[in-house]
Amino acid sequence: xxxxxxxxxxxxxxxxxxxxxxxxxxxxxxxxxxxxxxxxxxxxxxxxxxxxxxxxxxxxxxxxx
Length: 65
Description:
Elements: H1 3-6, H2 8-16, E1 20-27, E2 30-36, H3 40-51, H4 56-59, E3 60-64
Parallel strand pairs: 2-3
Antiparallel strand pairs: 1-2
Protein backbone atom coordinates (compact mmCIF):
# COMPACT_ATOMS: atom_id res chain seq x y z
CA UNK A 1 0.00 0.00 0.00
CA UNK A 2 1.33 3.42 -0.92
CA UNK A 3 1.72 5.83 1.98
CA UNK A 4 -0.61 8.33 0.31
CA UNK A 5 -3.39 5.74 0.46
CA UNK A 6 -2.54 4.80 4.03
CA UNK A 7 -2.79 8.42 5.22
CA UNK A 8 -5.78 9.44 3.06
CA UNK A 9 -8.02 9.52 6.16
CA UNK A 10 -5.63 11.97 7.87
CA UNK A 11 -5.76 14.26 4.85
CA UNK A 12 -9.53 13.98 4.75
CA UNK A 13 -9.79 14.99 8.41
CA UNK A 14 -7.42 17.91 7.83
CA UNK A 15 -9.51 19.13 4.89
CA UNK A 16 -12.74 18.82 6.86
CA UNK A 17 -11.18 20.92 9.64
CA UNK A 18 -10.15 23.68 7.21
CA UNK A 19 -6.40 23.24 7.56
CA UNK A 20 -4.98 25.92 5.25
CA UNK A 21 -2.14 25.41 2.79
CA UNK A 22 -2.51 21.66 3.12
CA UNK A 23 0.01 19.77 1.03
CA UNK A 24 1.42 16.28 1.08
CA UNK A 25 4.06 14.29 -0.72
CA UNK A 26 5.79 10.96 -0.46
CA UNK A 27 9.58 11.05 -0.60
CA UNK A 28 12.47 9.22 0.93
CA UNK A 29 10.22 6.48 2.27
CA UNK A 30 8.20 8.96 4.32
CA UNK A 31 4.90 10.73 3.83
CA UNK A 32 5.08 14.47 4.51
CA UNK A 33 2.06 16.57 5.46
CA UNK A 34 2.25 20.36 5.87
CA UNK A 35 -0.44 22.87 6.71
CA UNK A 36 -1.70 25.56 9.06
CA UNK A 37 -4.56 24.76 11.42
CA UNK A 38 -6.75 27.62 12.59
CA UNK A 39 -6.75 26.46 16.23
CA UNK A 40 -5.01 23.96 18.50
CA UNK A 41 -8.17 21.84 18.59
CA UNK A 42 -7.89 21.17 14.85
CA UNK A 43 -4.24 20.17 15.22
CA UNK A 44 -5.17 17.77 18.01
CA UNK A 45 -7.94 16.20 15.94
CA UNK A 46 -5.60 15.67 12.99
CA UNK A 47 -3.05 14.10 15.32
CA UNK A 48 -5.74 11.82 16.74
CA UNK A 49 -6.31 10.56 13.18
CA UNK A 50 -2.55 10.10 12.70
CA UNK A 51 -2.13 8.12 15.91
CA UNK A 52 -4.90 5.72 14.89
CA UNK A 53 -2.59 4.40 12.13
CA UNK A 54 0.00 1.85 13.15
CA UNK A 55 3.59 2.58 12.20
CA UNK A 56 3.10 6.32 11.76
CA UNK A 57 6.16 7.09 13.91
CA UNK A 58 8.56 5.69 11.32
CA UNK A 59 6.86 6.79 8.11
CA UNK A 60 5.12 10.13 8.68
CA UNK A 61 6.36 13.71 8.99
CA UNK A 62 3.38 15.89 9.90
CA UNK A 63 4.12 19.59 10.33
CA UNK A 64 1.03 21.58 11.30
CA UNK A 65 1.56 25.18 12.33
